[in-house]
Amino acid sequence: MTAFLSFADKCLLHEDKKNTTSYVIGLCLALAFALVPALETLILSFEQPYTIQDDARQFLFWMQQWRDPELFNKDPIAEYFKSVTPPGYAALHFVLDKIGIHPFLANKLLVTPLFLLTAALAYKLAYSVRPITAVAIAGSWLTCFFLSLIDQSLLSATPRAFAVPLLLWFLLSISLNSRFQTAVSCLLQSLFYPSIALVSAGVLVLLLFRWKHSERGIGINEKQIWPTLIGNAAIGVGLLPFILTTSRYGSIITAADAAALPAFQVGGRSAFFLSGFIETYICGARAGLLPVEWGCGEAFRQGLGFAPFLAAILLVFTISVPIMLRYFTHRKVDRKPGIFENREQLFSLVLISSSFWFIAAHVLLFDLHLPSRYTQHALRATMWIAVALLLGPPLIAAGRKYAPKLFGVLAMLSALIFFILPLPLSVSPYANYVSGQHPKLYEYIAQLPKDSLIASLSIEADNIPSFSSRRVLSAREYAIPYSLPYINNLRTATKSLIHAQYGNSPKPLIDFLDLHGPTHLLVDMNTTNAGVLVQQWWYNDYPDAAAWATKNISSRPPFLFNLLHECKTVSSGPLILASTSCLRSLSSKKINHK
Questions:
Q1: Least confident range of 176-190, 210-224, 317-331
Q2: What are the structural domain ranges in the chain?
Q3: Cβ atoms 567, 579 nearer than 8 A
Q4: Which residues pair with 25 in a beta bridge?
Q5: Per 3-state DSSP, what percentage of the chain is helix, strand, and coil (rounded to 5)?
Q6: Element (H or E) spanning 85, and its range?
Q7: Distance CA 68, CA 306 (A)
Q8: How far apart are CA 284 and CA 277, in angstroms?
Q9: Are the C-beta atoms of residues 285 and 292 closer than 8 Å to each other?
Q10: CA–CA dist 162, 86 (Å, integer)
Q11: Of the candidates 296, 315, 242, which has an alpha carbon nearest to the alpha carbon of residue 86?
């Protein structure tokens, strides 16, 4: 045991850039830790049939056109999400599809390599700054641990899942002074997740400037001019196709218009403006600066009194760690001359750049999309590595000085506890996979003509494009409210459907069928009382229509519900799929009879 601890101490806790054995052991431990949440997620994704990651539905359903071009023809929802899917993400799935890996399968399989890549890059970045194996392991472990707590990044395998590993690669290429890797990482960032590419562009610009101690002023770092030009040129080239495809959807919603829409308020589909300043701008998932898995947003949602205090602590933590790492790490590591004074400053530069874009995104709301996309992914990629670099070396030194006999045992025990920590926590509640509960319904709809159009207010409409490969008129999952032409059409259709479903006469139903032309209506038979309506996804987003529907069903059953059993084509649980040709015929007879 003593010999083992001595070997571990020498191998993992000493600063030695030339110790290849130590480096490889540390990398293997970093990768082994990343496998835990990755494999748990992989197992979860195959536990039930008809399972797909929640947000992945937006980016994957239209890709079925690659195998059958007749699917989703003239579908505005498919066309919109095709346009906002980053070209690199689409190209990757296209290549995988051509070699036989369906996009839905690829989404599940990508989680593991993304976790392993992130773990390796986090380890390499930390090691390039301070070649202490234990510190690099800690940086990688902490990064992967917090990434496994929520689907906001790697677990989703959506475009945002590429933000952290690509930013880590960019920072590593800067640390290693590799212009080629810098250019490639910048290009891939812009192709997979443009928001993080802008953060990298800001870092490159900041590296142009350096503090001259002798003159007490700022000068230009001439060695950084070409890397900055090359990196930003790569970002510009990568952003061009994304800009061209998204611009055809017209104007973006303004901050004033968004503030007036219920969908952007608490309880809405895209809640942006929350209950207070701190909750919105510090802790909010869409408007906030801090990563949601850090907990202050959840503290506000739970109504906990210490939520503002927690937000303040986390904000101080976020600002102080990179600054202390930059200015209070006195011991310099022997390294080749680079393009900047020390690698520790990379973490503060990322904070400055991401904060700049965060503020700009708020000022230009929503032209730069969501402000949180700039800081939250950047902090996920860098903060825990910075913590390990800041605290690791002094903790090792203190352990050797004050508890030399127990230090090795305590270090190994701490590592073991941290390594197994994800196992009892499990990522299952956080991977956010959706498992369809109505296979009979999906199979029937999949056999309908390819130009079928399903109209539904049920949350089950979210699954139909993915599980049945058929169009839907509107659905919560696809009601992304940032493009005005797109969301206005969706809102019109949804409000019209509410009036058709809960009207007390045939006319609203016939008007809806004439205007939007669905082939089938999917109706939840349980939604015939006011108490259930409050729980529907559209209740908060369309308050006027919801109030009208509530008033109507309080007086008598809606007209449509009396026809559903006669026009039923298939049912599953409380869900009934009805033919609109039958509904139209019966409605016309009712009118003529009157």
A1: 210-224
A2: 2-425, 436-593
A3: yes
A4: none
A5: 65, 5, 25
A6: none
A7: 54
A8: 10
A9: yes
A10: 11
A11: 242
